[in-house]
Design brief:
Layout (H helix, E strand, L loop, with lengths): L1 H4 L4 H8 L3 H8 L4 H11 L9 H9 L9
Amino acid sequence: LAQIFSYLDLGDLIQLTRTSHYLNGMLLAPSAQSIWSRSRRNAGYVLFPGMSEIRFAVTMEGSLCQASFL
């Protein structure tokens, strides 16, 4: 699965983390950083200094509820 997931867009990976507890745990594990990294590189993005791959994906492709910042 990890190899297949690495070809998905960042937004699709984010959505997968929200589909089940199993996929969430798998995709947010430290060992999954290469999946996120490959997906980011395939999209042509350059990682911001000091930012994790997952945080970058959520920043660029995720939708956050504005209420969560209150």
